[in-house]
Design brief:
It contains ten helices and twelve strands. By secondary structure, it is an alpha+beta fold. Strand 5 and strand 6 form a beta hairpin. The chain binds cytidine-5'-monophosphate (C5P).
Length: about 300
């Protein structure tokens, strides 16, 4: 690739949010992480990221959209760090640069891997912009260096995650599940939730993904899945944010099949029997929680995707 690309060359990608259908957490490890056994599902809430050719060595990010004011557009932004990692690892003597525009649809610090989705999007978009010959597995490997949740949005669908949650095996499930999400105005810090988990449970079991959950995914039936959803971080998140217990209870009161904390929270996901039930529940919850706090999504959806390449 030459160092003199037209400045208006750009690549646009779309990256999904995730929820965890089950999240089992083991003891704290010496590296500051926890062993996890989790099942991710990508859901239809997305960030869109546009990478435009920029002067050599320049990587800058600008975030727009409803959550933009909660994101720092600085060097520590995960999308910036992802582009720099790619440049340093596969760079052409500092000949490349990128302007990244992130249109954020995924809540910030919501337990839905929003920051990780932007890192994933930056890897995919910059690899395409700079014309790098990297496989999806190469990108996921780089992603794991940036954060435990970065590889999954690249893969999408439904997948088991082990180790820190970054070693993925796709799950061959059936059907499409309809979820209603209750979002929070205020985020929760993932390290703080894990730290509270350690305080509450000093001797957790080795984490595992229950066979019953995988079997339920195989049926494609929401009623089968409902009884298998589980998140070990629920008590810790509710301890830090007592209002979450009420939100979890709200969904089942208004007809959801099950309520589930997403990742380290505070987003709560309600599983419904189908699209019309999800519409009804979303309508009711909007009355209780406000229009902006409720989203209807489906899953699984595909992982990070190239939408447009403009040359
Ligand atoms: O990898 P990432 O930067 O997204 O992780 C954020 C924090 O979440 C980690 O620093 C750690 O405190 C916690 N975490 C953990 N175990 C994991 C994943 C995340 O303790 N498997």
């Amino acid at each position: 690739m030459s160092a003199t690309q037209p400045v208006d060359e750009s690549v646009r990608v779309r990256v999904p949010a995730k929820i965890n259908l089950s999240l089992a957490v083991g003891p704290a490890r010496p590296d500051g992480y926890h062993d996890l056994a989790t099942v991710f599902q990508a859901v239809s809430l997305h960030d869109e990221l546009t990478a435009t050719w920029a002067p050599p060595g320049e990587v800058v990010v600008r975030t727009v959209g409803p959550y933009a004011d909660r994101v720092a557009d600085d060097e520590d932004n995960l999308a910036c760090r992802a582009a720099r990692l790619l440049m340093n690892r596969h760079g052409d003597g500092g000949a490349w640069g990128a302007h990244l525009l992130v249109d954020k649809g995924i809540p910030v610090a919501g337990g839905m891997a929003g920051g990780s989705a932007d890192a994933a999007g930056a890897l995919l978009a910059c690899a395409a912009l700079w014309d790098l010959d990297l496989s999806p597995a190469d990108l996921r490997e780089l992603g794991a260096e940036l954060g435990a949740d970065v590889p999954f949005p690249l893969l999408g669908g439904t997948a088991v995650g082990t180790n820190r949650g970054d070693e993925l095996v796709p799950v061959l499930g059936r059907g499409c599940f309809h979820w209603v999400l209750a979002l929070s105005d205020e985020g929760l810090s993932t390290p703080e939730v894990f730290a509270r988990f350690d305080e509450l449970d000093t001797d957790p079991d080795a984490p595992r993904v229950p066979d019953e959950l995988l079997a339920a995914l195989g049926t494609g039936e929401a009623t089968e899945l409902a009884g298998r959803l589980h998140n070990d971080l629920t008590a810790a998140a509710c301890d830090l944010r007592p209002d979450l217990a009420r939100t979890l209870e709200l969904g089942t009161r208004y007809g959801a099949l099950a309520s589930l904390l997403s990742g380290s929270g505070p987003t709560v996901a309600f599983l419904t029997a189908g699209e019309s039930q999800a519409m009804d529940l979303a309508h009711t919850l909007r009355g209780e929680l406000g229009t902006d706090a409720v989203r209807r999504v489906r899953g699984p959806v595909s992982g990070a995707k190239l939408l447009q390449v403009l040359r």
